[in-house]
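Contributing new records

If you add data, match the layout below exactly. Sequence lines come first and carry their own label; structure lines follow with theirs. Keep one chain per record. Anything else will be rejected by the validation script.
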Amino acid sequence: MNNWIALIFSGVLEVVWSVGLKKSAGFSHLPWTAVTLVTAVFSFFLLASAMKALPLGTAYAVFTGIGAVGAFCFGILVLGEPVGILRVASALLIVAGVIGLKVATTA
């Protein structure tokens, strides 16, 4: 269970560093660049920790799924990015895939 918690936190940190990457404006804004680099390091550390026990494909897919859907939601809710039915349906497919991988993994 601790591996899954580490994996979830690594995915959440992926959202934070991807937002930081956007806000850093190509690493030209120092505070956001720092946020990006620090959260990326911790995100990868937690991912590596979770991968000690979880299958590679499952761990990486869950990590990127959390990051992709989290960034998608942040973009819509905070940055005013377009919603669109196809975009939402696609994000829901990612969520379904992440849930399916969790259910199919016993570690």
